Structure formats: structure tokens, C-alpha cells
Amino acid sequence: MADFDVIVVGGGTGNNVAAAAADAGLDTALVEPGPLGGTCLNRGCNPSKMLIQAANAVNHVQNAERFHVDAFIDGIDHAAVVDEMDDLLGGIAENMEDRYRETDNLTLFTEYTEFVDERTLELGGEAVTTEKVVIATGSRPIVPPIDGLDEIDYLTSQDALYLRELPESLVILGGGYIAVELGYVFQSMGTDVTIVEMMDSLVPREDDEIAATFTELAAERHDVYTGHRVTAVEERSDGHTVHAETADGGELTVKGSEVLVALGRRPNSDELGLEAAGIDVDDRGFIETNEYLETTAENVWAQGDVAGNALFKHAGDFETRHTVANVVHEERTAIDLSAMPHTIFTAPQIAGVGATEAELQDDDREYVVGRADYSDSAMGRAKKLEYGFVKVLADPDGKILGVHAIGDEASTLLHEAVLAMRHGLAAADVAGTIHAHPTLSKVLEAAFQEVTRQ
Reduced to 3 states, what is the DSSP secondary structure of residue 304? Predict the structure, then answer.
């Protein structure tokens, strides 16, 4: 007989799988060497959004004059913001651990583990067997082999989120969503921010028009250098110097008191001994799974960032439902990850779902475009929004192919489009829906109405 019915490796989204298994009466082990809650609660979306709210508060005060309100900032206690965040989130993680230690049928192991064979893992210095395994070990920041980087005290996103003392200046390597969110936070709090990105725009995975618009707006706040690949970093008496070059041989040198590496994330799959279990990974190290989240090893599933299907917390939560159905309740439920939304909480916000124009063009797909500007809406005028738009992509028959937005509340506006795409509604269905006036949702309505007229 196996030691456990289910072993869940990873306490981020995986903690919910373990709890469900224990509630179902299965003898369950949860393995997590760090605080429970994973990246999102402790090192990602939760702390970053708390800092972003503080940054938003700063910007609201600074922009109050536009509404003829005489307001000023007397000071910013960034350390207090971080301390409050740390106390709140740390308390949630501690309470989760206390609760799980008291949960029937659940054993918590606060250590690292690796496979001995297909369903045997090393825990507590012993080989522990199980009927089923779920791998949910998440991801961590990529730190590429840039010359000199290993010789300086660089920051990753995890370090930057918990800085109590604001750096005077910060050079961010990379221009993706983590880079621009943290750039927004630090600039708002008073740090001079420089961003160096290899691609031709910031947030290069967004629709080209969204990326170009955001890059232009970000350049008003930061020193932005796109089309530059970082080649070396060195520490000097006055801080850090970053060297970069363009594709045609142009050179760039920028300086900052701190350097933040924000060049993407890699899966935590490399120290699990996956080879011993016959678990295949792709060329980037992500565990390969099928539509049931099964790996190439029998009775071993993987979910979340380590599986690489979509590196978002909401994707991990969605996968958790299917893992619970398939592992705990022994169903055969395939997962559908289509119409997966994403959001970036900068100022302005960015949100998108479905295909971009470039992707449709690469696929030689026929499509039409509907577009509406925030500034043309009643609420946009009331908010004095000078930029922002919603863009709808549909095929000529009205099937919604993609929706992209940049502007105030874009993260919330997007969900109407996500709902429509998930349930097969046509562009005309959204365009014909009554939208309350004068909400910003009228911008989305206007974009859908325009696409139906094409």
C-alpha cells in the first residue's frame, strides 16, 4: 500500500488541490518549502498590486490640479506601505499553514523534494510512495548569463517588491509586464527609472498598436530604450553601469543606483528529478501536459506556471478546477484554455484576450477592426482621459477573434469580451447589448458597434 493517496508538490494553486483531496477523504501530502500561497500571494500579483494602489494614490493627488483641486503630497512613507503589505500577506500565508496543519487527512512537508521513480518521492530523508502526484511548483525569474551580472547585487521582482528604501535611480532590464508594472511603482514613488528592452517596443507581446501607444506614454515617465540588448553590467563607485547594443552595432550606456532584472520567468522543474519519473519537458523546461493536464508519466499531473499553458494566476486557478475533477473525483474533464485574458496594471492599464492583428496576419486570416477612443465617451470626457482605446478584431461573419484595450479600467472592461468569446457570442450580440450610460463600458460597446458596420 502506498504511503499517500495523493502528493501535491507546490503550495501555490496546488494548495487548493491538496485541500480538495483531503476534504474528499484521501490521504494527502502537500509539499512546499516556502510560504503557502505561492508566487501570487508572496512574490507576485498580490504584493505588486498593493504597491500599485499606493502608486495610483500618488498619481491621483498629482493629477488633482486638472480638476481644479489644490492638492499636494507632503511625503511618501514607502517603508510603511511595504511593511503593511508584508504583514497582511505574511499573515495570510501563516494562517493558511496553521489551518492545513490542523486539516484531517493532510500532511504538510515544508521542504524540497524530488522523484525517485514514477510515483515515489524523497521526503524527510525517506522514499515516500503515492498513488497520484500533482506537480504545481510554479516559476521563478529568469536571470540570463549577462557579462558581470553575477558580480553585482541585482534585484529580481521578488527583491524589488519588498524594498523598504527607494533607490534614487533604477535601471530595469526588460520591458514586459513585470518590468513596466514595477517601473510605474518606483517612478510614482520618486525613483528615476530607465527601461532597456531588446524588442522594438515595451510589452511586445501585446497588439502592436497597444504596445506602440504604451511605449510612447511610458517614455514620458521613464528613459526608455527599445531595440537594445543588454550586453554587460558593472558596478562602479557611483552605482551600476549597464551596457547595451542595437542590432546594427549601436552602443548604449546607462547608469542607476540599482539594477532590476525583469526578463521573464522560467519553470521550477529543474530540481525535481523528473527524468526518474519519465516526465517529459519541452525545450524551455515546461512540463508537457495533455488536455487533461496529465504528464507523460502515469497518474502524474501538472498545472500552473510549471506546465506553461498560461503563466497567469487565473489560469492556474482554472486549471485547479480540472485537476481536482480529474485527480480527486476521477473524472475525465478536458481543459479549454481559449479566450484566456491577461491584464497589465500600469497607468494606463492594458488588457487583452484572443488574437492580435499581427497573429491574424501571420495566419493569413481575414478580419475586420472596430475601434473606439475613451475620449469620445461621456465618462472619458468626465475623467478628462486624453488617451485610451478599445480595439475589436472579428472575422467578416462576426466571430470575435480578439479584443484589446489600453486605458482607465481596461482590466475590468475586458471581461465582457471574455464572456462573449467563451460562450460563442458574435460581435453583434455585444454591440446590441444595452450598456449603462455613462460608464466606460460604452467605449467597448462603441468598438463592437463599429466592427459590426465593417
Answer: helix
Residue (of 282, 305, 289, 281) closest to 139 by Cα position: 305
Domains annotated for the chain, with CATH where assigned, are: 4-141+266-328 (3.50.50.60), 149-263 (3.50.50.60), 342-452 (3.30.390.30)
The string of pLDDT tens digits covering residues 176-204 is 999 999 999 999 999 999 999 999 999 99
In this structure, which amino acid lies at residue 108? L
Closest CA to 188 of 78, 280, 275: 78
Cα–Cα distance measured from residue 433 to residue 450, given in angstroms and rounded to the nearest whole number: 14
CA-to-CA distance for 411 and 20, rounded, in angstroms? 30
DSSP calls for 72-89: ------HHHHHHHHHHHH
Give the three cell numbers for residue 208.
502592436
Give mean pLDDT, residues 280-300.
Answer: 97
CA distance 202 to 222: 12
* Kind plus residue range of the DSSP H or E element containing 231: strand 229-236
Grid coordinates given for 448: 463592437
Res. 116: pLDDT tops 90: yes
How far lies 250's CA from each of 148, 171, 245, 247, 383, in Å? 20, 19, 5, 7, 42
Per the confidence metrics, is the pTM higher than 0.70?
Answer: yes
Q: What is the arithmetic mean of pLDDT over 326-342? A: 96
CA distance 16 to 408: 33
Q: Which amino acid is at 19?
A: A
Please state, in angstroms and rounded to a whole number, the distance separating the CA atoms of residues 349 and 414: 11
**Comparing C-alpha atoms, which of 413, 393, 388 is closest to residue 403?**
393
Question: What is the distance between the alpha carbons of residues 439 and 377, in angstroms, rounded to a whole number?
Answer: 8
Q: Phi, psi at residue 323, to the nearest 5°?
A: -65, -45
Max Cα–Cα distance, the chain, nearest Å: 74
Q: Which three cell numbers stand for residue 264?
A: 521573464
| Residue 437 falls in the annotated catalytic set | yes
DSSP lists the bridge partners of residue 393 as 369, 402
Residue 36: closest CA among 106, 128, 108? 108
**In the block, residue with C-alpha cell 553590467:** 233
Indicate the pairing of strand 192-196 with strand 368-373: unpaired
Q: How far apart, in whole angstroms, are the C-alpha atoms of residue 305 and residue 289? A: 12
Per-residue pLDDT of 367-413, as tens digits, reads 999 999 999 999 999 999 999 999 999 999 999 999 999 999 999 99
Which is the catalytic residue, given 222, 228, 243, 437?
437
Average pLDDT, the chain: 96
Q: Find where cell 455613462 sits.
A: 438
Instruction: Count how many Cα atoms sit within 13 Å of the Cα of residue 123 in the half-sphere of its side chain.
Output: 20
